[in-house]
Amino acid sequence: MKLALRSRAAVLALFMAWVLGLTPAALWAAPHAQAAEPVIIGYYQSDVMPAASGPGLQISLTLYDDGSAEVISDYLNDEPPIVEVGAWEQNADGSVTLLVTGTDSEDYGEPIELTFELGDDGSLSIPGVEGGAFGAEGLSLAPAEPPAAGAPGAAITATAELTSTGEITATAGVTPGAEVTATGAVTAPAAVTETGAVTETQADQEVDVYLSDLLPVTTGAGRQVTLTVNIDGSVEMVTALMNGEPPLVETGEWARSSGVFTVTLTANAEGEYDEPVVYAFQEQDDRSLLLPGEEGGPFGPDGLVLVPTEEPSEVDASGVYASDILPAASAPGMLILAILYGDGDAQVSSYYLNGEPPIVEVGSWAANADATLTITATGTLDQDYETPTSATFEVTDAGLVAGSVTLKRLPAAGTAVETGGTPAPVARYQTEVMPAASSPGLQIALTLYDDNSAEMSSDYMNGEAPFVDLGTWAEGADDTLVLTLTGNADGPYDPPVEMVFERQDGGSLVAVDYPQEIFGEAGLTFLPLSTEETGEETAGSTEGGEGEPTGEPESNTGVQIGGGMVFQSAALPAAS
User: Fold this and answer.
1) What is the 8-class DSSP label of residue 457?
2) φ, ψ (nearest 5 deg) of residue 467
3) So what's the architecture of 39-169 in CATH?
4) CB 301: neighbour CB atoms within 10 A?
């Protein structure tokens, strides 16, 4: 999915919006969820429509940042509205797929799948179809103010030109020509519960184990509660009375919904209960589970606190990460660079391949107990977000993975970067003017930035804008530097173009490994340019010229960039 979100102040949270938009499918089945309340990122409402069973029908749709969704159908008849829950994701063509899975009291036998087109005004619509669930008029939901107090979530913005793909695919619960209704009432907050069928190899796999303190009892040393949560949706609660007797072992199932962790116990060793025992725990920021106390309740007025037995794993994930070229609606592509600092700070730069400066977000990162880490963006360089956004990544050998986005770890390179700083050049290079077959000449410039991004600009001296390649750079082994060109304004390179440069005495760089079918065999000499940051005079300048290069150019092929490239730079940081 490709979802661009705007904060209340209309600041584009590009990176987090992108990753959050790509991960809901994975979140549906994830055993862990963020303890914090899901954040509304889209609220939509229909006009009042005719209805056979009431004065009218108004439908509202709420989309949350964890991929869950809530649909409310209000028949305007003083009866409680019908609430359905499910999940959502945005498709490659900009359309939004809503999967209605049931209510909190029962799941539908088969989910109801609806596909909405996304309009330029941010509205969601299903085109009308004769005999369809919404008739010939279809259904249109406009961005609206959420009814709850507080700042509204941002509406989805149009991210791609839409095609007529907005048919309703109703596998259950929708009859042609009939109104769309839900079965059963809903009393709990709506969100997707994280239970469901899994493979046999997943069954009974422990996800989390929680332990209480020693609780006081009327007689005996006390009692202690252990809660084991399994990935298949089952749960086991063991209550040890510390009196030499066997503990009470109860089994059941669990569900997570909007910050509430519900444990439903249905049996013990003697058999199934006539009525299940239900505990609604509140998830805390420290990952503990809190069951509020009540007079006469099973745990008295003090309630019950269960603490996870595992501390978050110490994942050494600090470093620099880069994505491949990702598709983008408003540009030929998008490149993400993430810097995770050892002190927990984070900086994420989103480059659109349109020649514009990157969007830089700042925040923090933290390792989790399940071999994942969470990056939280608190704002841009210009202002803080009203509500921080976060994304959780799996830490794998391939890099950081969230949905279809993989951030690959780069070798340590460049100088130290201050958290929150704008990407700045650490080295610049430029060729002499070279012959070119189709223009007066060719001059190439290369700029390396302190966030490990790179830009190569080819100027054909013909009055047209230079041709710009974007990519990344990193230190390689044995005093080498690796330059990877990943795309340009016309789209990503498949595969990317990689070149290896060897550092010579005096700071020059010589291309020793590069695709000769692209750059030819003849060598090229690149003269250094000083940067504003170093304040050094341009190397090779003459006494009467300011930054004027000297020396004869090496031979070249006269097409595009030519052959092997030699860079010189006093500004380039020496290899460590």
Assistant:
1) E
2) -85, 120
3) Beta Barrel (2.40)
4) 10
First to last CA, the chain: 40
Which whole-number Å values give the CA distances from 72 to 82, 88, 110, 189, 316, in the listed order? 6, 15, 19, 12, 44
Task: Specify the 3-state DSSP secondary structure of 492.
Answer: strand
The two tokens of residue 56 are: 């009218």
**Is there a shared CATH topology between the 39-169 domain and the 425-567 domain?**
yes
Is the separation of the CB atoms in 416 and 434 below 8 Å? no
Three-state DSSP at 511 gives: strand
Return the closest-CA partner of residue 373 out of 324, 321, 423, 308: 321
CATH 2.40.128.300 is held by the domain 425-567 = yes
Neighbours of 137 (CB within 10 A): 13
The model's pLDDT over 322-370, given as tens digits with 9 standing for 90+, comes to 888 888 777 777 889 899 988 889 999 888 877 778 888 999 998 887 7
Distance CA 98, CA 113 (A): 6
Domain layout of the chain by residue ranges: 39-169, 425-567
Q: Specify the 3-state DSSP secondary structure of 61.
A: strand
Strand ranges (E), 323-358: 334-340, 345-352
Q: What is the DSSP string of 361-418?
A: EEEEEEE-TTSEEEEEEEEESS-EEEEEEEEEEEEETTEEEETTEEEEEEPP-SS---
| Contact (CB, 8 A) for 100 and 84 | yes
Question: Which residues partner with 262 through β-bridges?
Answer: 255, 280
What's the whole-model pTM score? 0.29
The answer to whether 156 touches 90, Cβ cutoff 8 Å, is yes
- Bridge partners of residue 349, in order along the sequence: 337, 360
Residue 447's nearest CA partner among 532, 524, 381 is: 532
Question: Omega of the bond prior to 495 within 30 degrees of 0, cis?
Answer: yes
Q: What is the pLDDT of residues 9-41, one digit of tens each?
A: 222 233 444 444 433 332 222 333 334 578 888
Map tokens 């046999």 to a residue.
Answer: 200
Residue 311: burial class (beta carbons within 10 Å; 0-12, 13-18, 19+): exposed
